[in-house]
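hey so u asked for the seq, here:
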Amino acid sequence: MFAKTLRAGNRQGFTLIELLVVMVIVGLLAALVGPRLFPKLGKGKQTAAKAQIEMLGQALDHFHLDVGRYPTTQEGLGALTANPGIQNWEGPYLQKGLPNDPWGKPYSYQCPGPHGEYDLYSYGRDGSPGGEGEDRDVVNWE
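ran it, structure tokens below
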């Protein structure tokens, strides 16, 4: 008889009500914190794209110092990693190869560009000109 009451008194755990209350509290916290956190993720990708464009600009400047000109639009950014048959080419000018933008698309390059000696840009998350927020274009001339 003593063993029977000991077994019944040793039962520990959470009730279904207690689990539901905890899940509701976690859901409320996620609903309050989530909207404040997610815009920061998009802003981080914009910042990363600006940093990559700056790094590509430095590589283009090194190319210009060696060759005496920037790569043509036809040669593209690929001229920074492989010699397209140019004399005085001292590359590769990028150590880890040509990166895509943070949204997985290649950077656009035009030389000469309407905004300067060359234009280097990403169309953002949506991949089309213009946009706001994470869809905003990231460019080298601003």
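Helices lie at 2-9, 16-67. The CA atoms of residues 83 and 89 lie 7 Å apart.
lmk if thats what u needed
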